[in-house]
C-alpha cells in the first residue's frame, strides 16, 4: 500500500476495490432478476478479454489491456433492455476524456475499473435509470502515483410521478449523510450540471448525484463514499419499478417513451465522458453501447400538447430541491 491507501501497482485484480465492484455487479444482477420473477428474463453473461491489436504509428500507446463481464437482459417481463457491466482495463496512455480536471495527465499509464448500469424498463410509466461507480489510478512520468474515484446515478422518467422522484433522491441523500450534510446537495448540483444536453438546453432527466475526480479526504473515505452510492442504488430505484411496472399503457405512451429515449441516446453519444473514454480509448464497443435503448424515435420540432401528461414531464426537468 502507498501512504494514502492505494494498492501498490494501481488497481490490481483481487484488491478491495476490485472485489467490491465485482460483488456489486453480482448483487445488482440478482436484484433485477428477482424483480423479473420466476417467469421473467435472465441476464446473459458475456465474459470478455481485451486483446490489443498490433501497434501501428497511429495506435502506439493507445491499446487497452484487461477484461470484464457484461451482463445484458432483453425482452424481460420488466426490463425491455438493460446492462450491468464490470470492467478492469489498463493502458500506456490515459485518454484526455478520462478527466476534465487533470488534462496534464493525458498520455500517462493508467489502470481503471468500475461498474456501469443502465436499465430501460418496457413500461413507459417506469423511469430509466443509470449507475456508474469507478476508480482510476495513474502513474505519471514524474511524481507519485495518483488515484481518484468517480460515478453517480440518475433518474430519467417519461411520465411525472413526483413521489417516485422524491423517494429516489431521498434514498441517495440518506446514504450520503454520514459523509457530511453538504455532500448530497453538492453532488446533486454537480449531477444537474452534468446530465444536461447543451445542444438542446435541456436536462436529460431529474438528476441524482454525480462526482468525478474524487480524492479529497483520503483513499478510504473516497472509496467508502463510492460504495455508499453503489449500495444505495437498488433501494432508490427498484421500488419505483415494483410500483409502476404493471400500470396499463398504450401506443401513445410507448411512442412518447421512444421519443424521449432519443434524448438519452444523444447525451450518451455526444457528451458522456465514460462513453467517450471508452470509444476514444480503444474500449470494447459492444459493452460501451449496451446502454442504448432497443427502440428510439426522433421527430422534427415536435412539441407536446399543452396540459398533457407528456407536457408535464418537461415541467419537472428543471433542477429543484426534491428532498
Give me the secondary-structure topology.
Layout: H1 16-36, E1 44-50, E2 64-74, E3 79-91, E4 110-121, E5 128-138, E6 146-156, H2 162-176, H3 183-194, E7 196-197, E8 202-203, E9 208-214, H4 219-244, H5 251-270, H6 273-280, H7 285-288, H8 309-317
Antiparallel strand pairs: 1-2, 2-3, 3-4, 4-5, 5-6, 6-9, 7-8
Helix pairs in contact: 1-4, 2-4
Low-confidence residue ranges: none
Main sheet? 7 strands, antiparallel
Shape: globular
Number of helices: 8
* Main sheet strand line-up: 1-2-3-4-5-6-9
* Share of helix, binned: 25-40%
Question: What order do the helices and strands follow?
Answer: HEEEEEEHHEEEHHHHH
Number of DSSP E strands = 9
| Estimated share of beta-strand residues | 15-25%
Q: Overall mean pLDDT score?
A: 89
Query: Structural class, please?
Result: alpha+beta
Quaternary assembly: single chain
Distance between the termini: 39 Å
Task: Describe the overall structure.
It is a single chain. Helix 1 packs parallel to helix 4 and helix 2 packs antiparallel against helix 4. With 323 residues, the protein is of the alpha+beta class. The longest helix is centred in the C-terminal third of the chain and has 26 residues. It is globular. The strands form two sheets. Strands 1-2-3-4-5-6-9 form a seven-stranded antiparallel sheet. A two-stranded antiparallel ribbon has the order 7-8.
What is the compact description of this entry?
This protein is an alpha+beta fold.
Amino acid at each position: 500500500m502507498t501512504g494514502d491507501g492505494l494498492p501498490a501497482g494501481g488497481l490490481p485484480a483481487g484488491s478491495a476495490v476490485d472485489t467490491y465492484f465485482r460483488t456489486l455487479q453480482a448483487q445488482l444482477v440478482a436484484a433485477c432478476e428477482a424483480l423479473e420473477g420466476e417467469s421473467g428474463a435472465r441476464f446473459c453473461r458475456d465474459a470478455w478479454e481485451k486483446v490489443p491489436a498490433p501497434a501501428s504509428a497511429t495506435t502506439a500507446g493507445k491499446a487497452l489491456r484487461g477484461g470484464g463481464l457484461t451482463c445484458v437482459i432483453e425482452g424481460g417481463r420488466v426490463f425491455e433492455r438493460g446492462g450491468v457491466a464490470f470492467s478492469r482495463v489498463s493502458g500506456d496512455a490515459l485518454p484526455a476524456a478520462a478527466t476534465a480536471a487533470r488534462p496534464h495527465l493525458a498520455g500517462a499509464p493508467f489502470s481503471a475499473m468500475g461498474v456501469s448500469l443502465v436499465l430501460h424498463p418496457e413500461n413507459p410509466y417506469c423511469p430509466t435509470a443509470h449507475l456508474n461507480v469507478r476508480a482510476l489510478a495513474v502513474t505519471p512520468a514524474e511524481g507519485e502515483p495518483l488515484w481518484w474515484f468517480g460515478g453517480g446515478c440518475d433518474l430519467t422518467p417519461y411520465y411525472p410521478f413526483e413521489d417516485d422522484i422524491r423517494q429516489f433522491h431521498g434514498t441517495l441523500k440518506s446514504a450520503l449523510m454520514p459523509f457530511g450534510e453538504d455532500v448530497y446537495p453538492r453532488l446533486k448540483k454537480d449531477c444537474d450540471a452534468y446530465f444536461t444536453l447543451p445542444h438542446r438546453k435541456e436536462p436529460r432527466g431529474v438528476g441524482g448525484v454525480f462526482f468525478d475526480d474524487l480524492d479529497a479526504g483520503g483513499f478510504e473515505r473516497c472509496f467508502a463514499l463510492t460504495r455508499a452510492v453503489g449500495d444505495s442504488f437498488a433501494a432508490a430505484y427498484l421500488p419505483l419499478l415494483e410500483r409502476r411496472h404493471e400500470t396499463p399503457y398504450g401506443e401513445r405512451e410507448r411512442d412518447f417513451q421512444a421519443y424521449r429515449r432519443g434524448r438519452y441516446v444523444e447525451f450518451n453519444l455526444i457528451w458522456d465522458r465514460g462513453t467517450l473514454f471508452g470509444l476514444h480509448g480503444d474500449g470494447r464497443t459492444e459493452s460501451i453501447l449496451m446502454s442504448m435503448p432497443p427502440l428510439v424515435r426522433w421527430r422534427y420540432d415536435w412539441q407536446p400538447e399543452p396540459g398533457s401528461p407528456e407536457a408535464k414531464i418537461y415541467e419537472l426537468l428543471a433542477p429543484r430541491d426534491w428532498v
